Amino acid sequence: MTDTGSDIAEGNAKPYSVSELAFALKRTLEDQYGFVRLRAELSKVTFHSNGHVYLTLKDERAAIDGVVWKGSVRNLSVRPEQGLEVVVTGKITTYPAGSRYQIVIESMEAAGIGALLAQLERLKAKLQTEGLFDPARKRALPEMPSVVGVITSPTGAVIRDILHRIRDRWPCRVIVWPVVVQGDAAAAQVRAAIEGFNALPVDGPLPRPDVLIVARGGGSVEDLWAFNDETLARAVAASQIPLISAVGHETDTTLIDFVSDRRARRRLPPLRSPPRCWPSYAPPLATCRPACTAMAAGWSRTAAAASPHWTAAWRGFRTWSNWPARGSIWSRAVSARPWTATSPSTAPRWCGSHRGSRRSCCNGRNRPRPNGWPGSARGSAPAWSAMSQSTAPNSPG
Asked: Cα(118)–Cα(134) distance, rounded to whole angstroms?
């Protein structure tokens, strides 16, 4: 006789190994919570040397560990910082060896504008404490730059506006370093452009700029957030070339505005017109006056030397532009011998032997055409009169 009760109890309570239970829980959690969105405050943020980011997500009553793998760090919209309120997306997983569960974060964004502005204020306070906002460390702008380096998008309206302003105010050579000015890659590209300009040799094939301009049009806080990056702000502060920040409109403020050597004065543009971002700085009049005086004197000498040539050209233009229209009375009243050959040393002059009064024939607009010309009475070749300038009755012009 067998004990069926003990067999049933033993069958219902099948023992698991620790590994079986741990991996069974892992599969259950990952299947049930394979995609979750979580709003929380960041704490214990650690950037590991292997590229991963370890942190803790918490609220008032609970906390959960999180990890951002190295391949996902570049896809984050904001940089993880202590105390930042964020909304993360990821999946729940467990670590069987330690009996812990965590969230693997795939994306992260700030939880509203307030969280972004709070993060910006904390970063501003940090950099100000380090002295990066000190006016004493800002460099003076060159009064007459020969080369200007512009870091902006090559397809936007800002670059066209900058080139137009430079051409009007101080024509010089412009070198454009194309970058994207919005999105996750913007801060890294702008930082690389600043470092690239500073790395140019002074006597190299590509001239080193005398001043740099970082420019972008206006936008929302999220659109301009790339210019609030801490690493970009430190690159601007470390630039050996004076740098002008021309990002956004006058009401927009970014972090590089505080660390740059000069913030461009920008006004809000009229409706449907491109933003005006060219920095308004001009050399003093006392510095420009000698160069302007020398240029004016050179232009005067050139004009004086070219005056006789322009006068002769104008006389010739008046001569040939005042012939009468075809079929007019004077084109039909040309005499048989109005012109005879002229010597090369004397200019063609009017002989005064054609019909009509000398005044009406040789002055004004009623001048006959020589033989052989369209509208003349004869088809023979023109013959010019050999007369000196003193004996010409009425010279043209």
From this structure: 22
Looking at per-residue pLDDT, the higher value among 95 and 139 belongs to 139
Is the pLDDT assigned to residue 104 strictly greater than 70? yes
Distance CA 77, CA 86 (A): 10
pTM higher than the cut 0.70 = no
What's the rounded mean pLDDT across residues 147-160?
A: 91
Banded model confidence at residue 240, pLDDT cuts 50, 70, 90 = very high
The answer to whether residues 392 and 347 touch, using CB atoms and an 8 Å cutoff, is no
Which whole-number Å values give the CA distances from 159 to 162, 186, 351, 355, in the listed order? 5, 16, 64, 67
Return the CATH number of the domain spanning residue range 20-111: 2.40.50.140
Answer yes or no: are the C-beta atoms of 230 and 191 closer than 8 Å: no
Chain segment 13-47, per-residue pLDDT in tens: 778 888 888 888 888 888 888 889 998 888 888 89
**Radius of gyration of the chain, Cα coordinates, nearest whole angstrom:** 42
Instruction: Copy the structure tokens of residue 10.
Output: 């033993």
Residues 6+ apart with CB under 8 A from 183: 226
Domain with CATH 2.40.50.140 in the chain: 20-111
The architecture (CATH level 2) of 146-286 comes to 3-Layer(aba) Sandwich (3.40)
Residues of the chain with CATH 3.40.50: 146-286
- The torsion region of residue 181 among left (phi > 0), alpha (psi -120 to 50) and beta comes to alpha
Residue 354: count of CB within 10 angstroms of its CB = 19
Query: Rounded to an integer, what distance in angstroms lies between the CA atom of residue 224 and that of residue 216?
Result: 9
Q: Which residues make Cβ contacts (< 8 Å) with residue 224, sequence separation at least 6?
A: 216, 247, 248, 252, 254
Contacts of 172 (CB under 8 A, 6+ apart): 145, 146, 147, 148, 166
How far is the C-alpha of 25 from the C-alpha of 94, rounded, in Å? 8
| Token pair belonging to 332 | 């039909």
